[in-house]
Amino acid sequence: MTDREYDVVIIGSGAGGGTVALGLAPLAEQGRRVLVLEQGPRLADEEFTGQEIEMAEALYADSGGFLTADGTMTLAFGQVYGGSTAVYTGTSLIPEPRVVESWGVPGLSHADLAERCRRFAGQNNVHLLEPVEINENNTLFAAGCEQTGFEARQFPVNVKGCRGSSLCNLGCPNAAKQGTDRVQLPAAERRGVEVVTRAEATRIEEKLVVVRVSASPAGGKGGPSEWEPGEYRVRAGAVVVAGGAIGSPALLLRSGFGERLPRLGEGFTCHPAFILVGEHSREITNDVGHPKSYYVDRAVEEGYVLETCMYFPFVTAKSLVGFGATNEGFLRAFPRLQMILVLACDRATAGNRVAVDSGGGPVVHYEFTDEVVRALTAGTRASARIFFGAGAARVHVPLASPPELLAAEAGEIDERIRPEHFLAGMVPVSAAHLMGGCGMGSSAGDSVTDSWGRVHEHPWLRVADSSLFPDSLQINPYLTIMALADRVAAAIREDAIR
Ligand SMILES: Cc1cc2nc3c(=O)[nH]c(=O)nc-3n(C[C@H](O)[C@H](O)[C@H](O)COP(=O)(O)OP(=O)(O)OC[C@H]3O[C@@H](n4cnc5c(N)ncnc54)[C@H](O)[C@@H]3O)c2cc1C
Ligand code: SF4
Asked: Per-residue pLDDT averaged across 77-86, rounded?
């Protein structure tokens, strides 16, 4: 066991950890020792090949197929330098005032979050794509919305020099997507923050982090760790946990913090989602161009959000319910497929939580509420209308039996797409907006941290990531996570001055 000493240790290098790292760069420049520990590897630019299977293995936890405890939903999250920002699509939204206000976190205002979100949007080159950059998978969605009376809004995205390869979720092979791996972390490192990859924080004790540094696996992507493989005890004046909505609660739980924090791990939400496909009679530009340009926000009215999306063959195959000729037909029609993601705006519910198994590994307990099933049903019906409004010949819908609707059956959408067809474990649900587990609030009775990420009763310990959300955000979360993490960095800088 090797001993090391730092002023601040940040655990995790994603949207939250990367933001804190840059926020603490002024301290590093003043000679304070700031360390980021990242469990995943650091890849060289040329290792981003866009190949589905190898990139999923290299960038995601469990290759993107982490399952909830009862096996009914897959959760996608990154495990690499930059965390999930290395694999996100980069749609960049500012939260709605109604959502932040409904959380009722003392000391947290929408105005403060929105101001910080706007600053990061500038830092990450967030802008609207020009019409010429938008492919048919997206323009057909907008056209279908217009036909059917839905309001399609354009997503701002954070790209610079985007070449439209549509591979954002496999790690951009063109260094165009402006995640923390491209922007905040390299800037922090240039200013003296140390980042150690392949370094997993296995346990936290009072002002101490126990770390396991792993050797590179034979044949795997990514460079070796900056430290020699082995076990380390890292002492720190302040510890910031930013391992994501699964990693952070799991680390704190296996370190024993649950005894004094009954809400630790509770309040997990994730925007459970369906990937739907509609087949056109001609080839469309779907996997050429940026994948995500439009969305429809029906969170208030019907509890769902629709987004354009484009997935690769393996993910598409696993998103089709059932087996056999119909599915094979949809996959063979890949160049003619249009895709829509339906996200349910789930709410923090008793029982939906992150726990740990006997070995300290994360376990996510999640049950679909009737509200979620209703939202997915309404969103699926809306998507079917939009597909047909855009001219699709047939649509694959997991909530119909059989799961195929022809254009001639468009008048039967409400009868055919039914909540009764939602059979957990039989319908392919996935989620990538993982939130909660270390929610903000007033005291240990109702939450894990205060509005500055300080863990109740442990002033040296803070959380700075998506686990801070007391309830779901109802939109794409990364800018809000950066804003929350920025507050954590500001509070630590303030502490350092005192
Ligand atoms: C495929 C996909 C697409 C997405 N698209 C969008 C989008 O378009 N717009 C949007 O707003 N959001 C999007 N998201 C969501 C967004 O990326 C995440 O919400 C955000 O990155 C979460 O930030 P975080 O800091 O909480 O965790 P992450 O970014 O997941 O970072 C956590 C990091 O901590 C590391 N870690 C965990 N535990 C430990 C430990 N014990 N020791 C050391 N390291 C540890 C992990 O390896 C990981 O790198 C997407 C997510 C995915 C997966
Ligand atoms: S679409 Fe743009 S941002 Fe996405 S992977 Fe391709 S070049 Fe990168």
From this structure: 98
Residue that the structure tokens 């700075």 belong to: 464
**pLDDT tens column, 175-217:** 999 999 999 999 999 999 999 999 999 999 999 999 999 999 9
Alpha-carbon gap, residue 245 to 269, rounded angstroms: 9
- Residues with beta carbon inside 6 Å of ligand 2? 159, 162-168, 172, 174, 176-177, 290
Ligand that lies nearest to the alpha carbon of residue 175, given by its number in the listed order: 2
Find all residues with CB under 8 Å of 391, minimum gap 6, and list them: 140, 144, 280, 281
Atom of ligand 2 nearest to the CA of 291: 1
Q: Walk me through the domains of the chain, giving residue ranges and CATH numbers.
A: 2-125+168-266+436-497 (3.50.50.60), 131-155+273-345+369-423 (no CATH)
How far apart CA 21 and CA 180 sit, in angstroms, is: 10
pLDDT at residue 38 tops 80: yes
For residue range 159-183, what is the model confidence (pLDDT) as tens digits? 999 999 999 999 999 999 999 999 9
CB-based contact 252:241 (threshold 8 Å):
yes
Binned at pLDDT 50, 70 and 90, residue 324 comes out as: confident
* Amino acid 14: pLDDT: 98
Alpha carbon 381 to its chain centroid, in Å, reads 25
Return the closest-CA partner of residue 129 out of 94, 91, 165, 86.
91
Q: How far is the CA of 290 from the centre of ligand 1 (A)?
A: 20
CA of 494 to the centre of ligand 1 (A): 26
The span from the CA of 87 to the CA of 59, in Å, is 7
Q: For residue 166, which ligand has an atom nearest its CA?
A: 2
Instruction: Give the CA radius of gyration of the chain.
Output: 22
Best of 37, 77, 87, 154 to mutate for ligand 1, by most ligand atoms within 8 A of CB?
A: 77
Which of 85, 87, 159, 312 most suits a substitution to test ligand 2, by most atoms within 8 Å of the C-beta?
A: 159
How far is the C-alpha of 74 from the C-alpha of 375, rounded, in Å? Answer: 18
Q: Say yes or no: CB of residue 477 within 6 Å of ligand 1.
A: yes
- Taking alpha carbons only, the member of 342, 294, 298, 290 closest to residue 152 is 294
Query: Any idea which ligand is nearest the CA of 179?
Result: 1
Which ligand minimizes its atom distance to the CA of 291? 2
Cβ of residue 84 lying under 6 Å from some atom of ligand 1: yes
Q: How confident is the model at residue 498 (pLDDT cuts 50, 70, 90)?
A: low
Q: Considering only CA atoms, which residue is closest to atom 2 of ligand 2?
A: 162
Q: Which residues contact 150 (CB under 8 A, 6 or more apart)?
A: 144, 296, 298, 306, 382, 385, 386
Average pLDDT of the chain is 97
